[in-house]
Amino acid sequence: MGTDLVRVEGLHKAYDTPAGPFPALKDVSLSIRPGEFVAIMGPSGSGKSTFMNILGCLDRPSAGRYYLAGSNVEELDPDATARLRNRTLGFVFQGFNLLPRMSLSDNVSLPLVYSGIGHAERRARAQEMLDKVGLGRYADSLPSRISGGQQQRVAIARALVNRPQLILADEPTGNLDSHTSEEIMGVFNALNDEGITIILITHENDVAAHAKRLVRFLDGEIVHDAPNPPRESAPSAASERHPLPWEGGRGEGPPC
Amino acid sequence: MLGAMLHEAWRAMGANRLRTLLTMLGMVIGVGAVVLMMAIGQGAQYSVAQTISSMGSNIFVVLSGFTSTGGVRSGGGNAPTLTVADANAIAELDGVDTVAPVHWGSIQMVYGANNWNTWVQGTTPAYLDARSWPLADGTAFTDSDVRAATRVALIGQTVAQNLFADENPVGKTFRVGQAPFTVLGVLAPKGQNLDGRDQDDLVVMPVSTAQRRVFGTPFPGSVRQILVKASSAEAMPPVEKSMEALLRQRHRLREGADNDFTIRNLTAVADTAAETTRVMSLLLGAIASVSLLVGGIGIMNIMLVSVTERTREIGIRMAIGARERDILAQFLLEAIIISVIGCAIGLLLGVGGALLVNRLAKMVVVVSGGSVLAAFAVAAGVGIFFGFYPAKKAARLDPIEALRYQ
Where does the sequence pass through the membrane (chain B) (predicted)? Predict the structure, then answer.
């Protein structure tokens, strides 16, 4: 299908180990259309992180094909894949991965530096994204001055700043308490409502329940791929549009 | 893009201020040492060049032979083998610019209560021309003074100071024995020659006056040496050859007989001195360059540490779209900034040090624009050369590994 945002066919990936090649992925095929919200689950060593690295153009498969937004990633040179990471993809990591010496604004605008965008526009777009995640007034603070949940929101703002089609989130709530996790998932839901495609790795069922499609990995193979049943227990699932936690006048605490 | 990269490099350097400063210090010392040593070396070359030009350029000195009395040989210049006529004959040769016969000796001068012992150069007006020696005051004697053997003299600065102190010597009369001499002029100062002898301690007078009225000689017309100036440096070897042939013929020396004169090429002596100082200044520069090299290695070392420390940052940057060349440029820029700033400080210290040496040690130092420019080029080069490997290492990192790095 030409309309797929992500299409992988017969993906294999093997790592060389002292005990011989270890197959991390075995014949994985998957298609994701624009606007989907996919959760990927699976135990450690099931190949989900390897899969994510390949989707993120950080790693190359041993065999198989990967089409991202219509282009065959295999045929692209390193600069072109860097461009894909810069413009088409947005990464959100478990450890937030903000640069500690930079202000939030500079962190968020960093991808724009590599797109060759001028200082004034970088600053404006970073501010816009920080406003979107409710942290606009901390634009000049350092990451160490804000909480973990707030840092992850900044990381999401950074992933969004170049208006990507696809967000790749690798255990984005892994370092957060359950309340903050709900908050971050609320952000992802809101983004998905805007039409941004999201692929998210998690091993928490609560988190996976926010997604509309669930893919399970086991021993390098997809063992489950089905739409997620609508959630019933989660409180925010009740409304059609997911309100962001800081919307509705609730004041943010000052940076600690 | 460059603005953002400069900003980031500045921030990265500021994050570890002491380390950055210490790394810079390596460059500061290296560049400072090179600039200072170059200044001293070039200063030495400059003073040698000054001394050489004070001797006059393209000069031969023809010395008369030695006497041998019962097996005891006197030094060169003592036998009356050269004459004014020889000098006139040499002047006719091709490639010869100026010729001045010189009859010299030492005299005791008296003026009022002062007296002074100095060297007399009895010669022709061409002497001043050959040695490119201008007058500071008064006028030179003329060919008619030479013909008439008048008692006139030109005195050097040292003589003027010792004999006349604060008085203006021009027009004054001093005595040698009972004979009065009139000072026509004072020579411009020349300073020391290559042997360290004071060139300003002399009296120049007509050759005939020196021969007949001061020293006397049993061989009329004989001189102790002839100063010959060739028209150019290229003309020197042929002039030397034809001069030797001419003098052998004039002195009726048979085939196989030794010369009864010696031709000395002062330019060759000067070249040797210039070469010596050139080698010395090269040596100084080379030794100082070693410290520049050490400074460069310091930069490389710190950049490698920095790349390791910032592995995770590099991974993040790659994940959000930095190309290899962006990472390379970032680290390279940092290395270049450190070395260029270090170079600028080193330059200031080097020039300051050179001025201090000039003040305290009274040495001539020369800081040329060329050496400053070279120092900057070398610093940028060192930054690029020693920054390249760490930067390349950073750019080649595997983003997945880098992101996992703790």
Answer: 21-41, 282-307, 328-357, 363-389
